[in-house]
Amino acid sequence: MEKNQPFFDPYNFNIPPMTNQMPQAMPDMPPAETMNPAMYYEQQYMYYKYLCQMLEYKMKLKEWEKFNKEKN
To answer: Would you say residue 64 has pLDDT above 70?
Structure first.
């Protein structure tokens, strides 16, 4: 996944809601670079993977803090 591709963030509430349609290309992009379904789902998967990693990290951190608290 390239870093200069537009990223659709479903949790960004500053953009107007979409009516069950996939995001279109950004206004400054030529029509040849419109977002295709494969890229859309890949970005959604990467975001889901990131959220899962963050949750796992926070859970491990809480366990570690609890363990250290009990140890002292």
So the answer is: yes
DSSP string, 25-69: --TTS-GGGPPPHHHHHHHHHHHHHHHHHHHHHHHHHHHHHHHHH
Buried b / exposed e along 16-43 (16+ C-beta atoms within 10 A): eeeeeeebeeeeeeeeeeebeeebeeeb
DSSP state of 15: S
And the tokens for 62? 């809480």
DSSP letter for 71, please.
H
Question: In the chain, pLDDT over 90 holds for what percent of residues?
Answer: 36
Tell the residue number behind the tokens 């859970």, with chain if given: 59
> Per-residue pLDDT tens for 5-21?
566 666 666 766 555 55
